Amino acid sequence: MSQNSRLSIAFDAGHLDLPDGNVVVLRAHSDPVLNRFDTIMAVQSFKPEYDRLEQMGISVSAEIPSDADSVIVELGRSKGENLAMISRAHQMLPDGGVLIVDGYKTDGIESILKLLRKIVPINGVFSKSHGKTIWLTKSGQTPDVMRNWASAIEPRKNRDGFFTADGMFSADHIDPASQLLIAQITKPLAGMGADLGAGWGWLSHQALSEHEKIKTMELIEAEKTAIDCAKRNIDDPRAIFEWQDVTKFSGKSRFDFVLCNPPFHQSRKADPELGRQFIRKAAEILNPKGTLYLVANKQLAYETVLDETFQSWEYMAQTSQYKTIRADRPKASRR
Ligand SMILES: C[S@@+](CC[C@H](N)C(=O)[O-])C[C@H]1O[C@@H](n2cnc3c(N)ncnc32)[C@H](O)[C@@H]1O
C-alpha cells in the first residue's frame, strides 16, 4: 500500500474534512489520492517523482509556496527534513487551516505524533498499514519551537565546510565511499566529464580541483536541494549543473569520463537495479575510449552489468565496505 492510499482510506472514512480553498502537498507522491482535490499544488524536489506528478496532470513545483488553506505533509526518512516540512506547513496556514501529516512508522511518524502532542492540539489520528495519518487545525501563531524546526532545510556548512541541508545524501560529512573513489583516480582526468547522481557536489569539486585538464564537468542530480547546494559548493566555470533524472539523461557518446557513486535506494527499498541503470547510462554517454570510475557498497552486484556494457573493467580497491571500479571502453551496442 502506498503512503497516499492510507490517506485515501482516511478521506473515504470521513475522518478528514478540509476547508474550501487550495491544498498544498509537501513531498508529494504520484498517487491517485491527489486527484480528489480541485485546487492542488504538489511540491516535490526529486525529479523522477516530479515528472510522474506532471504526467498525472497535477500542478507541481520544486519550491515550497508561502500560503495554503490546507497542507498535507508526506514524511520521508530524514527527521530534520520531516520536522522542517511540518514547520513550513504550519506557518503557511491561516487560522482554521488544516494540517495533515502522513507517514510510516519507519519514517518516525510515532515520535512525530508524540512531539506534536506536546506543542499543539491534535484533532485525530488514523492508523493503517504500518503508518499513521495525523490531522490538526491551526489555531493561533506557529509556536516558536515548531517555527525553529524550519532551519533544518536551509543550506548551511557541514563539518567539512560544504553547503548541505537535512535530507540529502551524506549531509553531515563527505561520503567515505566518494573519498575512496577520488583517492584511487591516479591517472589525470581530462576533457569532458559527467558526475551521475552528483549530490551536493563533492566528487566533482575534488575532480575539478585536482585535475586541471578537465574541460567541463556536468553534475547530474535528481534532488533539487542537493544540486542547488552543489552550485554553492563549486566555484569553477567548468562546472555545469543539471537538475535531471539520470535515467532520462541524453548525452550519447559525449563524455571522456564519468564519475559515479550511484544511489542504492529506490523510494524506500534498497535496489541495485537503479545503480545498474546508472552504469548502463554511463556506457551510453561515454565516447568509445571513455572511462567510468565507480564506487559502490561491496555487496551490490554490479559486475554482470559491467561485463555487458564495457570492453574491460577492474577493481581499483576493495575495502570491507566498498569497492571502486574502473571500466573502460563501452561496448558498441551501448552507444
Ligand atoms: C550515493 S549518493 C552520491 C552523492 C554524491 N555523488 C556524493 O558522492 O556524495 C547518490 C545520489 O544520486 C541521486 N539520485 C537518486 N536517483 C537519481 C536519479 N534518478 N537521477 C539523478 N540522481 C539521482 C541522489 O539524490 C543522491 O544524491
TrEMBL record:
The protein, known as: MFS transporter
Residues of the signal peptide: none
Species for this entry: Paramylibacter ulvae
Keywords on record: Cytoplasm, Methyltransferase, rRNA processing, S-adenosyl-L-methionine, Transferase
Classification via Pfam families: MTS
Keyword S-adenosyl-L-methionine: yes
Transmembrane helix found in the keyword field: no
Domain Methyltransferase small intervals: 162-325
